[in-house]
Design goal:
Layout (H helix, E strand, L loop, with lengths): L9 H35 L2 H22 L2 H7 L3 H25 L1 H7 L6 H14 L3 H9 L3 H26 L3 H23 L9 H26 L1 H9 L1 H14 L1 H19 L6 H25 L1 H9 L7 H26 L3 H53 L7 H23 L5 H28 L7
Length: 480
C-alpha cells in the first residue's frame, strides 16, 4: 500500500489509488464469499475431511509457488514487457506442466508422507490445476503492472463461483468430501485463466530468448525459492500436527489458521497487488519516506484486525462455525496477531523485490523455515495445537522480524523511524482490544458477545486513530 509523493506522475498516483480500491474490493468480496462458503462447508464436512483437503491444498500451494519461478514479478518490473513476454509465457507453461506431472505421479507418496493417505486423489486432481495456471502468467502480470484490479476481480470471481458451485454439488449429491473440493478447484481454474486472456485481449504467444533465460533465472529462481519456503513455512504445521495429534485435531488447527489469515487475505492481497508495481516506479523518491508512510498506513488497518481476532476468538469461532469447532478458538487467540504481521511482511518483501533483492527475500524465508521446524516439533509435543501456534509466533518475533529489518537497512531504508511509525497504531489497537474484551464479557451468548466486542473495539479504535488514518490515506505533499 504505497504512498506516492507529489513529484511522482499524476497518472501513477491515480493508478495506485484506483488499483488499491479495486484490489480491496476484490479481496473483500472474495473473503466474504469464502467465509460464507467456509461456514457451509464446516457444517457439511467433518473435521477429518477438512484436514484431508488441507493436506492436498498445502501440496498444491507449494507446487504453484515453485511453478511461478518469479516470472510474473519479473514482468511487472520489466522495462520491455512485450519483448520479454513470449519467453516468460513459454517458461510458465513448461514449469507448470512439469510440476503438474510430478505432483500427479507422486501423489500417493506425498499423501502418505504427510500422514493422510486419504488425500491422494485430491492431490492428483489439484495437480492438474497447476498445469492450467501456467498459461496465465503473462496476462496476470499485465493486469498487475497496469493496476487493473477490476479485471482481476472478474477472473477471481468466476473462479470462485464456479469452484464453489461444483464443490457443493459434488459434496452434497455424491458425498465426495475432500475430493469434491478438489474437483471444484479444477473446475474454477480454467475459467479464471481463460478470463485473464479475455480481459487483456491477448492470445497465448510463445517465444525463446536464451539471454533473457539467464536474466530470468538469476532474478526469478530466488523468488520461486522464497515463495516455496514461504508456503512451506505456513504449511509446515499441517504434516507435523497430522503426525503428532491426528487429522481430526489438524482440522481444528487449519480452521483457526484460516480465520487468523483473514487480515492477510483481505489486506495483504490488496497491498501485494499494488505495492510491487508502485514501489518499482518510485525509485527516484526518498525511499525511507515512501516506505515508512506505506508501512504506517498498512499497519493502521492490519493491527486492529489481528488484535480483534485474538480477543474475540471464542465468539468468532462459536458464532460462525458452531460448538463442535470449539477446540479451534484457543489456537485463534494465539494466531490472531500473527495474521496481521504477515501483512507487514508482504509489504517488506514487495519493497525488497522492487529493488532487486530477491536473494535477500529467499534467505529470510529460509531462516524462518529452518528455525520453525524444530520449534513446531517441540510446540506440538509440549502444548499440542496451542503449542504449535505459539511456535509460529515466537519464531516470527525472534527470527523473521530482525532479518527483514536488516534487509531493509541494506537497501537504504532508515529503520530507526519504523518503530515510531508503528507505535501509535499498535497502542490504539491494544486499547481497542481491551475495550472489546470487556464488552464481550458482558454477554454469554456468542453472537451477542461478538457483536458487542466488535462494536466497542471499532468505536474506540476509530476515536483514537480515525483522524490520522484519513490523513494518511490521502496522498499528500507534506513530508514527515
Amino acid at each position: 500500500m504505497t504512498t506516492i509523493e507529489p513529484s511522482s506522475p499524476p497518472t501513477l498516483d491515480r493508478a495506485v489509488k484506483t488499483g488499491l480500491t479495486w484490489s480491496a474490493v476484490n479481496t473483500l468480496l472474495l473473503r466474504l464469499g469464502s467465509l460464507a462458503v467456509g461456514i457451509v462447508l464446516a457444517r457439511i464436512l467433518s473435521p477429518t475431511e477438512f484436514g484431508t483437503f488441507a493436506v492436498a491444498m498445502t501440496v498444491q500451494t507449494l507446487v504453484l509457488s515453485l511453478s511461478d519461478l518469479g516470472l510474473a514479478t519479473q514482468l511487472v518490473r520489466s522495462k520491455d514487457f512485450e519483448g520479454e513476454a513470449p519467453t516468460i509465457a513459454t517458461l510458465g507453461v513448461l514449469s507448470g506442466f512439469a510440476l503438474a506431472g510430478a505432483m500427479i505421479a507422486t501423489s500417493p507418496w506425498i499423501a502418505r508422507g504427510m500422514g493422510s493417505a486419504e488425500a491422494t486423489s485430491a492431490i492428483a486432481v489439484l495437480g492438474v490445476t497447476v498445469g492450467i495456471a501456467g498459461f496465465g502468467v503473462v496476462p496476470f502480470a499485465l493486469l498487475l503492472r497496469d493496476f487493473r484490479q477490476g479485471h482481476l476481480l472478474a477472473a477471481t470471481a468466476a473462479d470462485f463461483v464456479t469452484g464453489t458451485v461444483v464443490s457443493i454439488l459434488l459434496i452434497t449429491q455424491f458425498d465426495l468430501g475432500a475430493l469434491g473440493l478438489a474437483c471444484g478447484r479444477l473446475a474454477g481454474q480454467p475459467m479464471a485463466t481463460l478470463l485473464l486472456f479475455v480481459v487483456t485481449r491477448r492470445r497465448p504467444h510463445f517465444g525463446w530468448n536464451r539471454a533473457l533465460m539467464s536474466d530470468a533465472a538469476r532474478f526469478g529462481l530466488p523468488i520461486a525459492g522464497a515463495n516455496v519456503l514461504s508456503w512451506a513455512t505456513l504449511g509446515l504445521p499441517t504434516p507435523i500436527i497430522a503426525h503428532g495429534v491426528g487429522l481430526t485435531l489438524l482440522g481444528f488447527y487449519v480452521l483457526a489458521f484460516n480465520v487468523s489469515s483473514w487480515p492477510m487475505t483481505v489486506l495483504g492481497q490488496a497491498v501485494r497487488a499494488v505495492a510491487l508495481p508502485a514501489f518499482s516506479r518510485t525509485t527516484d523518491l526518498d525511499q525511507s519516506v515512501v516506505f515508512r508512510r506505506s508501512l504506517r498506513l498498512t499497519w493502521t488497518i492490519a493491527a486492529p484486525c489481528g488484535v480483534a481476532l485474538a480477543v474475540l476468538a471464542e465468539p468468532v469461532i462459536l458464532t460462525l462455525y458452531g460448538d463442535r469447532w470449539d477446540r479451534a478458538w484457543p489456537v485463534l487467540a494465539v494466531l490472531g496477531i500473527f495474521g496481521s504481521v504477515r501483512v507487514a511482511f508482504d509489504l517488506f518483501a514487495a519493497f525488497l523485490l522492487a529493488h532487486g533483492s530477491s536473494r535477500t527475500v529467499f534467505l529470510v524465508q529460509l531462516a524462518w523455515l529452518v528455525t520453525l521446524l524444530p520449534a513446531l516439533f517441540v510446540g506440538v509435543r509440549v502444548g499440542g495445537l496451542v503449542g504449535a501456534a505459539l511456535a509460529q509466533v515466537l519464531v516470527v518475533v525472534a527470527v523473521s522480524v530482525p532479518m527483514y529489518l536488516r534487509a531493509l537497512h541494506q537497501v537504504g531504508i532508515d529503520t530507526r523511524g519504523l518503530a515510531a511509525a508503528l507505535a501509535r497504531p499498535s497502542a490504539a489497537a491494544l486499547v481497542a482490544g481491551a475495550a472489546g474484551w470487556l464488552a464481550r464479557e458482558a454477554f454469554s451468548a456468542p453472537v451477542l458477545a461478538l457483536a458487542a466486542g466488535s462494536l466497542a473495539g471499532l468505536v474506540v479504535y476509530a476515536a483514537l486513530m480515525g483522524r490520522q488514518f484519513l490523513a494518511e490515506a490521502e496522498i499528500r505533499g507534506v513530508r514527515s
